[in-house]
User: Fold these one by one.
Assistant:
Number 1:
Amino acid sequence: DADVTQTPRNRITKTGKRIMLECSQTKGHDRMYWYRQDPGLGLRLIYYSFDVKDINKGEISDGYSVSRQAQAKFSLSLESAIPNQTALYFCATSDPRDTLGNTIYFGEGSWLTVV
Amino acid sequence: KNEVEQSPQNLTAQEGEFITINCSYSVGISALHWLQQHPGGGIVSLFMLSSGKKKHGRLIATINIQEKHSSLHITASHPRDSAVYICAVKTNTGNQFYFGTGTSLTVIP
């Protein structure tokens, strides 16, 4: 089983619909991230959380919200999806106890298409 | 302004060729990662390094902290090496990761 699991892996949704992407991890890491990937652009940070009670905006948080339901679960919501939110979304975790800096682990990605 | 720059963006090689992908960064880092993304989309970590050189099989990663530059080398390239290779850095302040736009590698038999 994957250490970081994302659901759904693929979703097509209509403009204006609410959609939730879920992420769960078995690494026991406190730090979790949501990124989106678009062609020609590097991974961009949407939101991150360093603890169950900690939520922080990334560089492109507009139009998104998150919920950290437990240490192992971090969900990303698009309250009213729009076509330019069509992208590949990644959940990731990291461990601050790593002495070389943070190792980062990625989920398999969730392809979201907004039509 | 991109904190991490990679070159080239695209690379096509014949099987067996020696390949180099370059990464330059502009921020202070605690670690640099080389990631591999296959056509299915999943991302896996190949290397994490903060100094010197690491080698896994045919892959070699080097970093020069003073010059803020890293290279990923693939020796005796093979079609299964075809993927997007992404350079990422972990900053030494702010606990952030920054990612390059990736290098798309195609190795032709």
Note: The longest strand of chain A covers residues 44-51.
Number 2:
Amino acid sequence: NAGVMQNPRHLVRRRGQEARLRCSPMKGHSHVYWYRQLPEEGLKFMVYLQKENIIDESGMPKERFSAEFPKEGPSILRIQQVVRGDSAAYFCASSPSRAMNTEAFFGQGTRLTVV
Amino acid sequence: RKEVEQDPGPFNVPEGATVAFNCTYSNSASQSFFWYRQDCRKEPKLLMSVYSSGNEDGRFTAQLNRASQYISLLIRDSKLSDSATYLCVVTYTGGGNKLTFGTGTQLKVEL
């Protein structure tokens, strides 16, 4: 049973380009969470999705960021018109349910560098 | 005030030492509590859940004090491989499995 798969592992974008980060949850997991870790900072929640639905996007910046989790395929975190401040590690986690005591498994992350 | 606060460290300790990390949380609606471990440039991994009754897993002991909104992690007989950043994590009522992380405490175990 493969773990949470994120790709690409490293992504370099020039300012103004778009970044697409993909996350395939563990088999049988329908709940996906995206977190961002800025350099020298803790992980911050961005968005929580269940298949085809955004459940909680309270941590998403109001502009340029969007997320989806289609019925088929991976979850996508999309950042339009990237800026230097978007450089960070983006982690995806999945869980089989929304129960609070259910372990969430993390992917290895995508390190985005904006040049 | 941050929702989850930790001393950033670093804590530099010799092998075999006992080290304790503390964490406070501000939201009394917090429901579940965890310690995660994050190695440099890697993803966080669950170390252990934390219960009011306290729980132990080998060399690791976690305690929760709901009245003081305080969580602790004790590591006994430190190993070089324990060097990592330890993250205090809480979830809130109605938040599902959404995790709120502290900024982490860095531990360096030295020979």
Note: Chain A is about 0% helix and 50% strand.
